[in-house]
Amino acid sequence: MKKTVLICCTIVVVLAIVGEFVLRMVWGFCDAPLFVVSDNYEYIAAPNQNRFRFRAHSRYNSFSQRSDEPDPSKKKILGLGDSVLYGGTLIDQDSIASTLFSMDADWQMLNIAAGSWGPDNCAAYLKENGFFKAKAMYLVVSSHDAHDIMDFTPVVGVHPTYPDKEYAIAWWELLDRYLLPRLGILFKNLKKAELDPDQKVVEGIRKKGVGFNPGFDELKAMADSMDIPLYVYLHAELCELQKGTYNSQGKEIIQWCHQNSVPLTLELERGIKEDMYRDVIHLNEKGQRFLYEQMRKDLLLK
């Protein structure tokens, strides 16, 4: 009996060790991109990171951009946006649109983005960090960005999408960050659910900010002051694609662009397909390549 117990315990220990190794080395547990708090633009990825997560690499330079260090030999474009441009940890660094663009010709697109950022976050970042001698700004927005206004609600170290430290044990991360929250949903405990609550709105993501996002005007004023163009790319949520039209918030952005003579790319008119999405709003690798191709049309094929 004691021998059987000892064998069982040994098997459990070996499986736990092997599992820990597999979770870390194969799936990138305990290697999540970390975030830091900002007094000016709420939060951003911590600088100087090189992560491997869910079999995808992500790199962040000294300016917290998901890009290589600014290359003085290349002309710069400021890629501005939220998680659509940022790409997320499920997309490899070499497959996100800004990286694909930077591999092309003599240009480098700096990926200045973070999940749930709005244009005002982007403007505040540029006020703090400067313009990197850029030749253009390329702002990727979705309809909800019309009212996605900074409110400085704490998320870093609070929401699981924005961790500020790594888990010490991969098994505990799997249990605490992924399994328990999903089990909690069964008991209506949504506190630590992994998905952004905004994504659960079937009719499309809606933000509660009062008034039109001031970041649009701020970015336009910055671009004008440097005598460089500001381009706006209006990404479509999956429900907008299915309906074939942007919602009321998207139409506010369209109206602002027309009133301010800002070049506007409407993704719905460029042939985006359902198989380019990985959820209700984010792009998969095929979608990121599609976004890159639109960037190239707008910026390089003039």
Automatic annotation (TrEMBL):
UniProt protein name: SGNH/GDSL hydrolase family protein
Species of origin: Bacteroides faecium
